[in-house]
Design a protein that fits this description.
Rossmann fold; eight-stranded mixed β-sheet; six-stranded parallel β-sheet
Length: 390
């Protein structure tokens, strides 16, 4: 049952670049959870980072209210400044706050001190990623601890992250809610042909070009022999400036096409839908958005065989732990049409069982309502305690 419109609960969503989504997974989550909640009668307010000349201005988008805060710098310093200004604005109200990410968990402590219900999606074990360097890893580690201590509720996007967070906070305040996607049942072939690809004649690889994502191993495995199909790699590769990027480019055969960074979701959906399969080398983190989106398009998956990926993809995946194993997985997928078909069906079944946005957003709503009920119970307890004492 929806919340009565004349008595709407309000949630403020922080920690993302804003809506509509045009940046990454957290923005997509904020958009989809926000729109679901609006449809259920909630008042949803999303804080958005902009480069507008006005310092702060408010507007709306698809029923979601937006607080736009001008912080042009998109780097770590700019993000921290934006988070601080967002928290400072939210502190003027008593609405429950949903924050995506713990990168500036030190600011979220202020919500707890003001008695404002605070829910934090803890993302992956971000501080462990070597790409940040020792300074930023330390900063992230401290903020993870602060968010775990001071938030009222924590969200883990994967069962393994739930287990990890129990070393940081009581089990009672941790809820597992995965990432979501929209099922892709059709897509124009012209979109992929415009990129020089033929439908069902290529595999896709969508990831940031970082060593922890096993890009080099996957490109080496694909390029070990002539395939008769293309490997379409999405991402920004600058061989002149980055030694890892250069190694990937040099390892690629003539059948590997580097398409650059593509952010248009419709183009990416079409690429997935008409792909023979998806290569996923991520080794760090919880439920990866790109892997979920591949399942939603019915893609057979070849993934690094860690506990995060195997839980998400299940029977839709073939798993590797070395370049040689990845080569065997690619051989098996390309040479066994019946297996590929069965894996595609398993991908859609796994997606429908766990990763639809309606399923994911309903869990967010249940957690928000629980947080509000907890605050109301505490307020009633304090009121009865006051009456007893007087």
């Amino acid at each position: 049952m929806s919340i009565p419109l004349n008595d709407r609960a309000t949630v403020r969503i922080l920690g993302t670049h804003g809506v509509p989504a045009a940046y990454g997974g957290f923005e997509t989550a904020a958009e989809n959870v926000g729109r679901y909640l609006v449809g259920r009668g909630w008042r949803v307010i999303v804080y958005c980072q902009t480069a507008h000349q006005q310092a702060i201005y408010e507007d709306g988008w698809n029923g979601i209210e937006r607080v736009n805060i001008s912080v042009p710098n998109m780097g770590c310093t700019g993000t921290a400044k934006f988070d601080w200004l967002s928290i400072r604005h939210a502190l003027k109200y008593s609405d429950v706050c949903l924050t995506f990410g713990y990168n500036t968990g030190v600011f979220n402590t202020l919500l707890r001190l003001r008695g404002i219900p605070s829910i934090v999606n803890m993302d992956g074990i971000e501080w462990s990623r070597k790409r940040w360097g020792i300074f930023w890893q330390t900063v992230l580690y401290i903020n993870e601890r602060l968010a775990a201590w001071f938030a009222n509720e924590l969200i883990a996007d994967h069962p393994e992250l739930n287990t990890y967070l129990r070393t940081r906070a009581p089990e009672r305040k941790i809820t597992t809610i995965t990432y979501g996607a929209h099922r892709v049942d059709e897509a124009p072939t012209a979109t992929v042909r415009a990129l020089g690809l033929e439908p069902k004649k290529y595999l896709t690889l969508v990831a940031r070009p970082l060593p922890e994502n096993s890009i080099l191993e996957l490109v080496q495995a694909f390029s070990a022999k002539t395939r008769g199909v293309t490997l379409a790699v999405l991402g920004d590769y600058n061989g002149a400036a980055d030694s890892y990027h250069r190694a990937v480019l040099e390892a690629a055969s003539e059948e590997v096409e580097f398409l650059g960074a593509i952010y248009d979701p419709h183009v990416v959906q079409a690429l997935r839908y008409h792909s023979l399969g998806y290569l996923h080398g991520h080794t760090v983190g919880g439920t990866n958005p790109s892997l979920v989106e591949a399942l939603a398009a019915g893609n057979p998956v070849i993934a690094h065989g860690n506990k995060y990926n195997t839980w998400v993809a299940g029977d839709a995946g073939l798993y590797f732990n070395s370049s040689a194993e990845a080569e065997k997985c690619i051989d098996e997928l390309l040479n066994n049409a019946d297996l590929a078909t069965a894996m595609g069906r398993a991908a859609l079944a796994r997606f429908e069982s766990e990763f639809t946005w309606d399923h994911v957003a309903a869990q967010y709503e249940a957690l928000l309502l629980r947080s509000l009920r907890t605050r109301e119970s505490r307020a009633r307890f304090r009121g009865s305690e006051f009456q007893w004492s007087t």
